[in-house]
Amino acid sequence: MSEPLFQSLEDAVVVSETALLDTQVAVESLRAELDQFTRLHQIQLGPLYGRLDELDALTAETEAAMTGDPEAIRRAVEARARVDGEDPLLFAAANAGLLEDDEEDAAQSETPPRPREEAAPAPDPDVPVRPSKTAQRLYRELARRSHPDLVQDPTEIARRSAFITRVNAAYEKDDLPGLQKLSEEWSLTSSGPGVDAPQREMWLRNRLIWLRAKQAELALERQTLMENPMADVLAAYQYDSLNALRSISEQLYTAIAEREALLNALIGS
């Protein structure tokens, strides 16, 4: 390869590296912002949404008790299912027999009792995953090649420390595809052969391919994050999470007051 073409390949790799770094920072920043907003949304507004659901259930149950209408009873069952965190359709199907009984007792209709199914036991988080032999082999190879104790330059130590943290996380989960991807990544993100080495050109070409593939992967990841409903909420408030939470809470309080007034009027009638 001629010197100008070789230098052009080197430059293309540098440009792609810079673009990839910028994209990684943008994606991780967006992910952190969405995670924080989702957490605050649940903590601060979750009880308000819960109160709205409870008021809707109480209103539906009151209407069902007053009218004895089978459809009203069905709506009450489904509303209560939402409060209890059940799938409304499955819950209503499970209570089909109760609904039929209520049709016969419409004159004394009350909200049907809600049987609760025992939840399946959750996996014990304290039980460790035993990595497979293949995962152990990949882990040893990666640790031997990328461990931060093998270098002295502070910047390289930091880079290797961040990388080995990802390796450890994949190994603990026995994530074989993840370890294989990390092995490929390390091969292409190391400094590669020297500038004068005959293998340099092939390494640059392979690295450029990998960088562009990684850029496409991150673009897809960002698109997936942007499809999160919380991203739409944040975008509507110009990514001002505090203003979004304040505005939504005001709307919820207004809706709660309206639902309470409706329920009180229904009971009073």
Task: Give a summary of the structure in a few sentences.
76% of the residues lie in helices and 0% in strands.
Structural commentary:
This protein is 76% helix and 0% strand. It contains 10 helices and no strands. By secondary structure, the protein is mainly alpha-helical. Mean pLDDT is 80; it is low at 88-128. Helix 2 crosses helix 3 and helix 5 (133-146) runs parallel beside helix 7 (176-189). The N and C termini lie far apart (90 Å). It has helices at 3-67, 70-83, 88-94, 96-104, 133-146, 154-172, 176-189, 200-226, 229-236, 241-268.
Please state the oligomeric state of the protein chains shown: single chain
Overall mean pLDDT stands at: 80
The gyration radius over C-alpha positions equals 29 Å
Helix/strand/pairing class, anyone?
mainly alpha
SSE pattern: HHHHHHHHHH
What amount of the residues lies in strands? under 5%
**Poorly predicted runs:** 88-128
